[in-house]
């Protein structure tokens, strides 16, 4: 029987992935106070490169230091440190695999702002239980065009520095994804309203990036199969966007779902509530019916049988693995060599210490906190890897939460002002 997972994949641009494993993008939070890469990222990616996946996608790299998804994000906006971006690319490709840079603007879902505002398609703040609504302002058309140029500038820099591809982040509620949703985008100009208008920011970004990197360089998009919100971006709309992305000749579409207001891949952490392997497979199938590009499915893929099934009968081309890579960095190698038949779902076994759930929290706040605590356990494992330590599998959720809070508070306080100044993208 052919071993499907070890088959190479030739992408439309001609690049070849050596097997069907893709490390999903995982925000690292390891950058310095100027949001530059450093030796901690180099150490982390050398280890991931040795882990056997044909493709690694970086955690989201930002196009503008003013708006970050977290304080430790890498940004590329004239802040210098390109020698470290080169070292980071070299480490991530050291075993001969592909290493693509995920490029992002967090939009209204940012956690850090250096100018006191959170820009989105419209002035509609994010609603997450337990989190105060951050003031959100609507971007002007000039700013939208500047953002598109910045995506292209970062993609060019990625190519020049040795990354072997790029991924445009248009999922999970970040800026491009929020343009797609009628809940967060109520604009009445050319960037809102009908689906073609709501998809304009994404499609124009894809075009600008493709033009900047050329036809022979992998360009990928990460897209929600659905936002799973009443009035939000639906699966039917996502299918339509896949059709349009096909016309743009992208090389790989990573399929996921949800946003901070509704995150199915975080909610589905308990074995009792887990429906079955692959959170988004049913939705992905409808996208596959119209897709002309290879597809990567990410979210809850854990067993060899489930992965092979997704490739064989689901029409998927690449299996994305996120959380298992934070702990078992060589899990792809183990699955390829048949030393292992499944990745461990650490998220299902993590005890959430009741102390973490703030006293007096509403059930919705408690649920949000529980999900967040589950997530930060993985951040802390990534930080350990960046420091050259082994993952700590027996770390409690409470311990991880404390480390996470201390670290992010320290990083936020240390963030440098905009010096060197922002590069204006032309
Ligand atoms: C610690 C952590 C960081 C993440 N950072 C990103 C990111 O930067 N960009 C992104 O598109 N998704 C990010 N994700 C989502 C993952 O790429 C993936 O979609 C999700 O973990 C579900 O896959 P899994 O079930 O294999 O973990 C992150 C997830 C985790 C756990």
TrEMBL record:
The answer on whether this UniProt entry bears the keyword Flavoprotein reads: yes
Q: Which CDD domains does its entry note?
A: OYE_like_2_FMN (cd04733)
Which is an annotated GO molecular function term of this record? oxidoreductase activity
Task: Write down the species.
Answer: Panacagrimonas perspica
Q: Kindly state which keywords UniProt assigns to this record, in alphabetical order.
A: Flavoprotein, Oxidoreductase
Name under which the protein is recorded = 2,4-dienoyl-CoA reductase-like NADH-dependent reductase (Old Yellow Enzyme family)
Q: Which domain of life is it from?
A: Bacteria
Domain named NADH:flavin oxidoreductase/NADH oxidase N-terminal: residues: 7-335
- Asked if the Swiss-Prot or TrEMBL record annotates the protein with the keyword Disulfide bond, the reply is no
